[in-house]
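Exercise 7.
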Amino acid sequence: MANRDTNINMVSRLLFRLLPIQVLLAAVGAVNGIVSSFFASNFVGIDAMTAVGLYGPVNLLIGAVSTMLMGGSVILCGKYMGQNHQEKMQSVFSLDMAVTALTAAAFTALLLVLGALDLTGFFTRDAAVRPLFDRYLIGQAIGVLPFMLGNQLSAFLSMENKGSRTVTASLVYIAVNLALNYLFVQVLKLEALGLALASSLGMWVFMGVQAQYFLAGPSHLKLRTRQLPWRETMEILRVGVPGALANGYQTLRGLIVNWLLSAFVGSVGISAFATANNVLAIFWALPAGMLAVSRMLISVSIGEEDRQTLTDVMRVMFRRFVPLMCAVGAGIILCAVPLTRIFYRDPAEAVFDMTAWGIRLLPLCMPFAVVCMHFTCYAQAANKQGLVHVLSVVDGMVCVSAFTALLIRPLGMNGVYIANILNGVVCVGIILGYARLKNGRCPRNMDELMVIPADFGAPAGDRIDLSIRSMDEVVRISERVQAFCLERGIDERRAALAGLSMEEMAGNIVGHGFTKDQKKHSVDVRVVRKGDDVILRIKDDCVPFDPGERQKLAEEGDVTRNIGIRTVFGIASDVQYQNILGLNVLTIRI
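Solution. The predicted structure, written as tokens, is:
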């Protein structure tokens, strides 16, 4: 139990350390929506706000494709990282960049044609809104390429443990977006075109700040333009499609809901729904950020076949993330009216009341969404495609569309909001039902709730998981490692070497890594017997430390320095070091 709690705490610290960066990244689009809504409602008019709302499904479609490529690539890279296949990681990164650029070019051409030739009749036939929407499409087309590439680069920067560059890019983007909106909309009076241009040009700056690290910085991942493994594209799509289908279905859902709003509420309903969603998008950045950090750790854990860390990610989600979202949702509900006043000043207008009720009701979806998003991500990485497809269809389109169609006539605008809440309830029920079906009973623990295969990772009898929090525990853990090896038929020499290696490396971490800062640290130790080999995996959250580099330095100078580390390298058949999402991971095979 002590080891379980220690590992959960380490996972929790890692997730919350990465969370602010990912939330800020997710908030970039939300800030864009809020800025656009503010300038549209205050300086252009409700018709411009309707144009912004009509673009929502288009943006979801582009986001779905971007998410598909990003999700598939990150999951594959995470698995290759866990398996220490560095060359494959490089290939997937370069291929993802190339495919994303080609896809973005196709979307850009499509939006330009639709807007320039006024081929948008299937979106709206409102004579006042349609010209604004045409110009809005043209302006947005310019930003498709940096939007899609920026999403990919942000995910890979997190894998490089360089999320601070994403923070910088996000802050610069927000400043540029605000300045350009003021220039284009308020000063130059470009109306809807100005709204879109401000966002698009800001995205070019956002992407450029991130790309500089990979083009000129000391990045581990390097962009290659020759001999790209184009056949791997299908694998990226295969892995990424299920998780991105939700966004694709949401595109259809958006078109259906917009049609129902137009038919039963009017254009004012589209404006209110778009405003409420844009306001809440800044808060939706929190569950999106939670998912982003969890996705990376889930994919690495599956690559390592690390059952404990995999289940601990979900435990952190239930114990930390869900309560946090409940608290945030309560705060949003209390501030519904002040938030509405940012965009609409007159409470007597119908759009004011509709928007306020959206801000009151839609936050109730958020805790359910955190659970559904995490289980969809896990199912995607674990190749549980059936569950992914069911959740994607139900969550993305069926439930909201069906409940909206049933409720919009008797409840009006609130029927749309309530439909979203009911959708979350149904999706959580599907997750529980899937676990009940696969286990033949109601799930009793996290392993059963996640339906983790019995053969995933090393069998319980062939592994031991331990945690070290002080130097006093190092020797005791070393003795336990040696005893574990002897009990499983490992010869005395290699059992002693395993204990010695553990004592030396873990002692180095406690003696040096624990003292580099004022934070609490622990060392997560796993010992596995695999065939005739003993595999030691030592994971810590201290400052980056590569014992291989330390050994090279020692070999070049005084031979009496770092004797312990050089001894371990001498007796081990293989030693691998990686820094995964800010965690030092050392794997020693004896």
